[in-house]
Amino acid sequence: MRVLRQRDDDGSVLLLTLGYALLALALILICTCATDLYITQKRMDAVADAAALAGADGFVLTVDGDEVRAELTSDGVREQAEVVLSATGDDAVLVSATAPEGVSARVTVSTQWHPPVVTVFVPQGIRLEATGTSRTALR
To answer: Cα–Cα distances in Å, from 17 out to 27, 30, 64, 105?
Structure first.
């Protein structure tokens, strides 16, 4: 007959618990940073779209006989986009505001994102950029 000896397992459960707690904490921090990054990018998309929509109103009416045309200029788009950016109160910076073919307004904005929790790994932050395009309705 064989005698089985019990092994001493004291302390192994504590190490597993600490390991899982550290893993859970790391997962929570990563999810928090990823969610904040996603929300910041979506906010930048909304600001770019709003600035492009306002920029599409920066047209100049041209009357040529019986024909009336609305043409967008880059200066008009930039002016309208700056008004929207100043009204938002965000730290968004206007990168470019153009009217490529005179019908559409294309606005690009950017911001610097910093993680809310663990800034040691990304001290300079990450540059986020968003571009919005809107066409004028008067064409």
So the answer is: 15, 20, 79, 56
CA–CA separation, 107 vs 94, rounded Å? 8
- Other beta carbons less than 10 A from residue 16's beta carbon: 10
CA distance 33 to 115: 6
Cite the beta strand spans of 27-81 per DSSP E. Answer: 59-64, 67-72
88's tokens: 């938002």
Each residue's pLDDT tens digit, 20-32? 999 999 999 889 9
Any idea which residue has 């571009």 for tokens?
131
- Can you give the residue ranges of every domain in the chain? 12-135
